[in-house]
Amino acid sequence: MTSSQPCKQEDGVRVRFAPSPTGYLHIGGARTALYNWLWARKNHGVFILRIEDTDAKRSTAESVTEILDGLKWLGLDWDQGPFFQSANLPEHVRAAEKLLESGNAYRCFCSKEDLDAQRQDAEAKKIPFQYDRRCRRLSEKEIQEKLRRGDPYVIRFAVTEDPACTVAFEDAVYGRIEKKCRDIEDFVIVRSDGRPLYILSNAVDDALDRITHVIRGADGLANTPKQVLLYKALGMSPPIFAHMPLTLDNKKAKLSKRRHGEVVTLAYYRERGFLPWALCNFMALLGWSTTDDREFFTREELISEFDLSRINRANSIFNYVPDDPKNWTDPKAIHFNATYIRTMPLEELLPYVKQELQEQGLWKDSYDNEEEELFRKTVDLIRARYHTLKDFSTRGRCYFSDDFRIEDDAVRKNLAKAPELRELLPELAGGLDALEDFDQESTEAVFRTFAEEKGIKPGLIINAARAAVSGTTVGPGLFEMLEVLGKEKVVRRLTRAAELVPRAADK
């Protein structure tokens, strides 16, 4: 039996996030980075960022930038790197040469036609295809003759032919994994163009970086026995493996941009106004369970709670339904973000709101100076109903600009039904303008007295004022809203809204 002995941890925990820069940074990749980061931070270890860029045709500088920016936005700071796998190519080649010299690998000169014939034969016999190892039996003379002729070849790892051999390792999530060596074919480790394959490069890089734990998706589990064989043949100690469950959609399909579109990309959530830690908290629970029913964690709390033993074996579900405008991503993700916006310390939220307003041209320098307290009160007042940071510049636009739209529904329900509002609103504006103290108590008193004097229900003028000053039918309490908007804005908007009320003769 070939059993892996995890590498020694004299240096402490060392983990790595090793994305390929061939596209976008997606939710699955971000979750992998998060789990590695949490394990490093919990154990006061080292989190390494390695860019696996050996696929030169598909790797792009734009993808590298997106990866770095995405991790920075999430707050997943790395301790070493970014290292680029391509820089280690000489080490990968030397490892292949070492395996050739030790007899743990051999040159395979079989052509595509040879392999296709073997595959067809296996299909005809209804047995799984495995390379028949014919090149493993070539004599040294035959090998040298083929090399002299310049015959192309790949390098294959020579899996032991001992029928009693079993590869075994302990996975931190799935427990003990065993695979019989006879079920592992002599797999390719170097292409015919001389470039080492990922399975070899990855093992060599993990050894060079002294990685103690490899935390990755369960789709890498099938290749792990091969990597254990590689570690042993190279005289290296393998790391501890922890394979995370996959994240699937509600139809049990693996998340991908091709199938699901932008909703699986990290950039999508950044652009739609997600708070970084809210997304991290949501992603952490896609495949990891707490000791109780708790869902919300601060950064420090999640680091303290996180443990590899509580990574689930069952695949997690990303509950996304295309073309649902209300739930434009997993409803639970929206719930997490809204909860954070509503409950996080105001001092932590304000910089995010400031950035959103700056990006939308709604920020005023006075919010950093004489109107700082007003800005704080406004954000604190309106955040309870918002789901994303975008809501502050869209649904909350009226608090930061006079250039906002009065919704058709607000006009129809609160303004157009009562022609008398055409005269009442300017009169009300005059009464408010005369106030010396423009606070909740004073403005409410004006409304109540005004309604009584005019013989109208207070609700008529209150609802009309809400539509006039905010453009909508819902929101915080009206008098709280009026206080943060200020007398000048309120008087101006009430007067302006009167023009939206149809004349009695037009009814």
Q: Which characteristics define this entry?
A:
507 residues; mainly alpha; Glutamyl-tRNA Synthetase, domain 2; 13 strands; Rossmann fold; three-stranded mixed beta sheet
What do these coordinates show?
- By secondary structure, this protein is mainly α.
- The protein has five domains: 2-83 and 199-247, Rossmann fold (3-Layer(aba) Sandwich); 91-190, Glutamyl-tRNA Synthetase, domain 3 (Alpha-Beta Complex); 249-343, Glutamyl-tRNA Synthetase, domain 2 (Orthogonal Bundle), CATH 1.10.1160; 345-399, Helicase, Ruva Protein, domain 3; 405-507, Arc Repressor Mutant, subunit A (Orthogonal Bundle).
- 44% of the residues lie in helices and 11% in strands.
- The protein contains 21 helices and 13 strands.
- It has a three-stranded mixed β-sheet. Strands 2-3-4 form a three-stranded parallel β-sheet.
- Helix 1 (27-42) packs across helix 11 (299-305), helix 6 (198-208) packs across helix 7 (224-233) and helix 16 packs antiparallel against helix 19 (458-470).
- The chain is elongated, with a radius of gyration of 32 Å.
